[in-house]
Design brief:
Blueprint (H helix, E strand, L loop, with lengths): L1 H6 L6 H11 L5 H13 L4 E3 L7 E3 L6 E5 L5 E4 L5 H11 L9 E4 L7
Parallel strand pairs: 3-5
Antiparallel strand pairs: 1-2, 3-4
Bound molecules: zinc ion (2 copies).
């Protein structure tokens, strides 16, 4: 399961991971895959993402990064560019909070769906 998530660059859902693991290892159970995903998330080896669609998506890239999500087909890609530090400073100034982290998802149309 970990190999499948790490090999994927498309941020698959649990269902997609189940299909891929099942192709390599026929007969593996749904419950086993879901339980393994939960364990890997709990141990910080993969990320569980909520990208706006109904199903959680899984990411083998655990380094700090953001995403861009296609509003038509649901494709998701990594965005290596960081938000300017001024954005966090502005949030702190407006709220009095100390910002430690943030999650960001840009939304739009992927190249395949046409801008
Ligand atoms: Zn698309
Ligand atoms: Zn990612």
């Amino acid at each position: 399961v970990l190999d499948v998530v790490r090999a994927a660059s498309d941020h698959p859902t649990a269902h997609q991971i189940l299909e891929r693991v099942g192709a390599a290892q026929p007969g593996i159970g749904v419950a086993t895959v879901y339980r393994t995903l939960a364990l890997l998330v709990a141990h910080g080896q993969i990320l569980e993402l909520q990208l706006g669609d109904e199903a959680a998506r899984y990411d083998g890239n655990v380094a700090r990064h953001d995403h861009v999500v296609c509003t038509r087909c649901g494709a998701a890609a990594d965005v290596p560019a960081a938000l300017p530090v001024e954005a966090a400073r502005a949030a702190e100034a407006a709220t009095g909070y100390t910002v430690q982290d943030y999650e960001l998802a840009f939304r739009g149309r992927c190249a395949g769906c046409g801008g």
